[in-house]
Design a protein that fits this description.
The strands form 2 sheets. A two-stranded antiparallel ribbon has the order 1-2. Strands 3-4 form a two-stranded antiparallel ribbon. The chain is globular. It has 255 residues and is mostly helical. It has 12 helices and 4 strands; from the N terminus they run H-H-E-E-H-H-H-H-H-H-H-H-H-H-E-E. Strand 3 and strand 4 (253-254) form a beta hairpin.
Length: 255
């Protein structure tokens, strides 16, 4: 495989994403909504329903407190890999074939062990680099950013194959990918504005508060659908699955 340098600007990649999303925004947002509920809403409910004041075990020397709120963290630790693989599978199917099926969010469970292992390995290496300082940690996160797209695209590949391939794909492309993600900050801030008006003081630590959080986060669903579609476009450009013509226009990209 040849190392392909992505030449398209962030603006051009976003235009590719918008072109793909034309007429499909609601359904792709629904797909991200399923991912959001499974990875954010359910852990929030677990933290609420299993509060931190829990079970005490006594002996002559030591009192140990086991916090049942850890169940939420355990839930995310175990399942986040499968759901991350699922969202990548969902967005690739949409971007390439306009196959929009929110059920694809659960595709990652077919390769649960591999997805869990990849999440652990990516997290471990990113953590090691972040010990050097913030910037090396960010660079590491960008370097390994394509690992789950690779696994979604080629589920037969092993964990370390995905790690090595993402490093190869991002060679010369890290700055371009970082700028692409950075270009969404304005949209993310704008999408977060409705949540700023949520009356948390009246609904904190309640099921209603969790429900309202979902409602106020609906604009964010559309921004994240946009972001993940742009990431899929970047991945296909970096792998050569998406080929650009010399003079860019929104219709000048062949899948």
């Amino acid at each position: 495989m040849n190392n392909i340098i992505v030449r398209e600007t962030s603006s051009e990649i976003r235009a590719i994403a918008r072109n793909a999303l034309r007429g499909n925004w609601p359904m792709v947002a629904v797909g991200y909504f399923v991912f959001y509920v499974m990875t954010t809403t359910i852990p929030n409910l677990l933290s609420l329903l299993l509060p931190s004041a829990a079970m005490n075990y006594y002996n002559e020397i030591l009192e140990r407190t086991i916090s049942l709120s850890y169940v939420a963290n355990l839930y995310n630790t175990i399942l986040m890999g499968a759901f991350t693989l699922g969202i990548c599978s969902f967005i690739l199917a949409f971007f390439r074939k306009k196959d929009i099926n929110p059920g694809y969010i659960f595709n990652g469970f077919e390769y649960f062990i591999k997805a869990f292992g990849l999440m652990i390995v990516v997290g471990f290496f990113t953590f090691l680099w972040s010990l050097l300082f913030v910037i090396p940690g960010i660079i590491a996160a960008v370097r390994y950013s394509q690992a789950f797209f690779i696994l979604a695209d080629h589920p037969e590949k092993g964990i370390m194959e995905c790690m090595n391939e993402t490093k190869f794909l991002m060679n010369g492309n890290k700055a371009r990918f970082f700028c692409l993600c950075l270009s969404f900050i304005g949209w993310l801030i704008l999408a977060a504005l409705p949540a700023a008006f949520m009356p948390y003081e009246f609904f904190s630590n309640s099921v209603m508060g969790v429900i309202l959080t979902v409602v106020f986060d609906i604009p964010n669903m559309f921004v994240m659908a946009y972001l993940y579609t742009a990431r899929a476009a970047f991945y296909d450009l970096a792998t050569g699955n998406l080929v650009a013509k010399p003079q860019f226009s929104e219709s000048d990209y062949n899948f």
